[in-house]
Design goal:
This protein is of the alpha/beta class. It has 11 helices and 5 strands.
Amino acid sequence: MEKVDLLVNNNVDVKGSLEFWGDLNSYNENLLEFKDSLKEKLKNLEYYKNTKDCANYAILAHSMKSEAKYLGFINEAEVFLTHELKGKEQDINFIENNYHTLVETVNKIIGLLDQYFSDETKKIILIADDSNIILNFLEKNIHDEFSILKARTGSEAIDIIKNNHLYAILLDLNMPNLNGFDVLEFLKEQNLMDQLPVVIITGDDTEETIKKAFNYGVLDVLNKPFNEENINRVLTSINNFYERDKI
């Protein structure tokens, strides 16, 4: 089902884009291709940032800017433009200090387009962990049942929470740039803990840590290392969380 209003309500210039693409089918095809390319482009941008390769950083930011603009993401295109110009200026300090803004912008686009293209019955789970191995293992084992969004830092997780209607969160406690407890504090301040099941991912199973997490009202704990059976257990807990309101 096409949900153009979802894009329009999030300040995407669909009308202007359709003047360029001609029809909604062509627009959607390019929109989906753009979404699917963003994670790889973000990975490459991070590599160029870390290696201080400002020239290639600028080229890739330019590409993202152009695609975003043609697809109606005008505000987001401005973020990519800024990074393109700073790359051309060899301003690595700006790039390093403001890279999180670019990451948040990309995650916002991906989250919005995941909703736009998803089956309305498909539920979204956020997995927040700074380990690619953990993220990929979890995604592999629950991808078919749910739509997965991934965050590698606490700030990325909060940005995704703000911009998506989530079914559940699998949250690592030890992450850079705001940790899991910072995310729990945000959820508590937004009065979301009673509405949204949160499962903690942790390798620290000390009584103090687990007690502190449960004081926030988390649903369950997924202790590292875990397996498919453990994942299925917490998914059952998540589904039961919503069944309680039907009793």
